[in-house]
């Protein structure tokens, strides 16, 4: 976001709202406060920020940060989502299996990401509902989807929406491994997806970038979840679009012009998860590395690579090289990316 801000001469200053610092922040009347986290817990800094006259999307947290109210919102708007219910004190797993089938996915109401905070109930194994998940989780039907797609869009202060083309995503163990966009075969779903996300952003009076993750079943879309921020499945726009999702978000909250984003070339995004930085990646003729400089831990997203998919031969060469440089769990996603972008 800071990089995107530089181009617009907007100074982006990250703030850790949970930092124990006692001093209040120095804020100007012209400053704009945007939030890139799921929860908005109370702290002296978060209170100060949320009282600022340009605190954007304040009322959104209460509705989206909790899966219970997020799924309720989708139901209220009659937007298709995986069938679900709240896991209550008296909820029996047998009853959940009766309603939703042999595999039921419990998801913590708050705090889950990258597939953490999920618990599968499997009928043959008679898996129990963990005691401390009652009232704290929802139960969802397992969806036998064909593919996963997401839509990244942005809404202006006066209610106009712009969108990127649908992105095809591959998750492994609940974590995003790779994305491909745009794809001609997804074009027929674009209008439907845009109508769904416009409806959601309008209802929330939302300003900025929001992502809608979906399961694709034939020509139908079921919303999996919403993310009120720039999204990992939109990282390809950093390299391939004339306005990236990061710049689009800044333009929206700053009230700057927001033309429809143009796609300069198709792209593949590969997430770098729990791997050490490898300078071989920098030798890819069509690659751009984004390294977050975070401590490397298993399962942690530490960077991503955007590859141009304009030249099929070049793309397939790069994916082959990456298969040599990345560990075993990448082999299937790299093959998937090669096949999907053909
Ligand atoms: P994120 O990092 O995207 O925020 P998250 O931990 O919030 O992830 P979800 O997006 O709800 O969790 O689920 C992660 C992945 O788990 C999905 O992308 C999908 O692959 C799988 N999944 C989630 N819900 C279901 C479901 N009802 N049926 C089948 N698979 C599912
Ligand atoms: Mg999530
Ligand atoms: Mg998700």
TrEMBL record:
- Enzyme class, top EC level, equals ligase
PROSITE patterns registered for this protein in UniProt? ATP_GRASP (PS50975)
**GO CC aspect terms:** cytosol
Q: What is its EC number?
A: 6.3.4.18
Boundaries of each ATP-grasp domain copy?
Answer: 71-254
Task: Name the pathway.
Answer: Purine metabolism; IMP biosynthesis via de novo pathway; 5-amino-1-(5-phospho-D-ribosyl)imidazole-4-carboxylate from 5-amino-1-(5-phospho-D-ribosyl)imidazole (N5-CAIR route): step 1/2
Task: Give one GO biological process term.
Answer: 'de novo' IMP biosynthetic process
One molecular function GO term is: ATP binding
The protein's UniProt keywords, in alphabetical order, are: ATP-binding, Ligase, Lyase, Nucleotide-binding, Purine biosynthesis
Pfam families recorded for this chain?
A: ATP-grasp, PurK_C
Catalytic activity, reaction form: 5-amino-1-(5-phospho-beta-D-ribosyl)imidazole + hydrogencarbonate + ATP = 5-carboxyamino-1-(5-phospho-D-ribosyl)imidazole + ADP + phosphate + 2 H(+)
Q: What quaternary arrangement does the UniProt entry report?
A: Homodimer.
NCBIfam families referenced in this protein's UniProt entry, alphabetically:
PRK06019.1-4, purK
What family does this belong to?
Belongs to the PurK/PurT family.
What does it do?
Answer: Catalyzes the ATP-dependent conversion of 5-aminoimidazole ribonucleotide (AIR) and HCO(3)- to N5-carboxyaminoimidazole ribonucleotide (N5-CAIR).
Which named protein is this? N5-carboxyaminoimidazole ribonucleotide synthase
Species source reads Shewanella denitrificans (strain OS217 / ATCC BAA-1090 / DSM 15013)
């Amino acid at each position: 976001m800071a990089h995107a801000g530089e181009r617009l001469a907007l100074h982006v200053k990250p703030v850790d709202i949970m930092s124990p610092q006692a001093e209040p922040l120095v804020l100007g009347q012209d400053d704009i406060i945007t939030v890139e986290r799921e929860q908005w817990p109370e702290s002296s800094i978060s209170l100060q920020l949320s009282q600022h006259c340009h605190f954007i999307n304040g009322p959104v947290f209460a509705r989206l940060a909790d899966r219970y109210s997020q799924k309720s919102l989708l139901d209220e708007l009659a937007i298709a989502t995986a069938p679900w219910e709240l896991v209550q004190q008296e909820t029996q797993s047998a009853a959940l299996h009766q309603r939703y089938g042999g595999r039921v996915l419990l998801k913590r109401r708050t705090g889950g990401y990258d597939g953490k905070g999920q618990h599968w109930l499997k009928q043959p194994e008679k898996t129990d509902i963990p005691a401390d998940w009652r009232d704290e989780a929802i139960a969802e039907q397992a969806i036998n989807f064909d593919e996963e797609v997401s839509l990244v869009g942005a809404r202006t202060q006066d209610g106009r929406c712009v969108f990127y083309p649908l992105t095809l995503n591959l998750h492994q163990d609940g974590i995003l491994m790779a994305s491909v966009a745009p794809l001609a075969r997804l074009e027929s779903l674009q209008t439907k997806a845009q109508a769904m996300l416009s409806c959601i952003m309008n209802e929330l009076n939302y300003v900025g970038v929001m992502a809608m993750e979906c399961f694709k079943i034939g020509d139908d879309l079921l919303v999996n979840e919403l993310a009120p921020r720039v999204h990992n499945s939109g990282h390809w726009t950093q390299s391939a679009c004339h306005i990236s999702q990061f710049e689009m978000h800044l333009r929206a909250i700053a009230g700057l012009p927001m033309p429809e984003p143009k796609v300069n070339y198709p792209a593949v995004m590969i997430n770098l998860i729990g791997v050490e930085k490898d300078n071989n990646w920098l030798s890819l003729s069509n690659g751009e590395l984004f390294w977050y400089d975070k401590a490397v831990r298993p399962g942690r997203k530490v960077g991503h690579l955007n590859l141009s998919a304009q030249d099929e031969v070049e793309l397939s060469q790069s994916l082959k090289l990456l298969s040599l440089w990345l560990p075993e769990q990448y082999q299937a996603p790299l093959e998937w990316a090669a096949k999907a972008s053909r």
